[in-house]
From TrEMBL:
Highest taxon of the lineage: Eukaryota
UniProt name for this protein: Uncharacterized protein
Organism classification: Eukaryota, Metazoa, Ecdysozoa, Arthropoda, Hexapoda
InterPro entries linked: P-loop_NTPase (IPR027417)
Gene3D superfamilies: P-loop containing nucleotide triphosphate hydrolases
Length: 299
């Protein structure tokens, strides 16, 4: 079974028992040879095959490993921001053991083959999901990436009309953004910035954050909101108090495990985190955390 999902929360590494050795407690019993038992040995202590007594663990022979529990949510919960469907999603508890837990990152989409057990989904393997376009770029198949026919025709036309302008195509594309709301020349600089920011996503360097400053905040809000629909993934911050810290939070569960939960910025990895109007960030801490992210390009 293949589970595809975005990692939204994970625990710190937890010790688990791979296997343990048991021996008969009766020193006079003929069965003095140890028996190695794999799996969850706490719940299934073996009995001696000769005298039938419950065996005792030989603790020095216990073999332990590390595991991480993670919560994966369906990619459609955060991707396809243009979709009008309202769907509720529940996360799946996944167990990553030993080397599978190395390099797990919150907010990243993974393909996880494995098996559903009573307690959790046991991962057999884990792989970062790569989009078709990124796969082609990595394998240097750029020439085979064809532009959509309409864009290709526009590019040919502009190359003929304005052969000396390297910006002609991107300016023409930017002008068409939200064409049903604004005339094409309106807010062109902001539209160019949004195209640049969208193109910077999902690469090996931090994306370009956009901070629009102006008197008409409603127009900027509509334009930015429209641009989020073009992104691969979008997280909208409806209320700062509802979302909590932008990077994430930490808490302990009933079993004493330490959990790290992704905040809005991490959930928006490879996409857009739309913070909305600056006026709703009333707390100084929230304002400074947003500014530090924008200025430091941490995400
Ligand atoms: Zn025995």
């Amino acid at each position: 079974m293949l589970l595809q999902g975005i990692l939204v929360a994970q625990t710190l590494p937890i010790k688990y028992i791979r296997s343990a050795v048991f021996r008969c407690p009766d020193s006079l019993c003929r069965s003095q040879q140890g028996q190695r038992v794999a799996g969850n040995v706490i719940q299934c202590v073996p009995h001696c095959s000769v005298c039938g007594r419950e065996m005792k663990e030989y603790c020095r022979a216990r073999d332990t490993g590390d595991q991480v529990l993670g919560l994966l949510v369906s990619p459609s919960a955060l991707e396809n921001p243009g979709s009008k469907e309202f769907v509720r999603h529940q996360s799946t508890l996944v167990c990553f053991q030993d080397e599978l837990m190395v390099d797990l990152e919150l907010g990243v989409r993974y393909d996880v083959p494995g098996l559903q057990t009573n307690a959790y989904f046991q991962a057999w393997n884990v792989q970062r999901w790569v989009s078709d376009t990124d796969a082609k770029i990595r394998h240097q198949e750029l020439p085979s990436l064809l532009m959509p026919p309409a864009i290709s025709a526009l590019n040919a036309y502009l190359s003929h009309c304005c052969p000396s302008s390297p910006w002609a195509l991107v300016a023409a594309l930017a002008a068409q953004m939200a064409a049903d709301m604004f005339p094409t020349p309106a807010l062109l600089h902001l539209k160019l910035g949004l195209i640049l920011s969208l193109a910077s996503q999902g690469r090996n360097h931090p994306p370009v954050p956009i901070l629009a400053v102006g008197a008409d905040t409603l127009a900027a809000h509509h334009l930015l909101r429209h641009a989020t629909l073009l992104a691969q993934r979008c997280v909208t911050l409806s209320s700062p108090s509802h979302w909590g810290p932008l990077h994430g939070t930490a808490h302990h569960d009933e079993q004493g495990n330490s959990w790290l939960e992704a905040g809005a910025l991490l959930l928006a990895s490879t996409g857009v985190c739309f913070l909305g109007d600056w006026a709703k960030f009333k707390s100084t801490n929230l304002r400074s955390s947003v500014l530090s992210v924008c200025l430091g390009c941490h995400i």
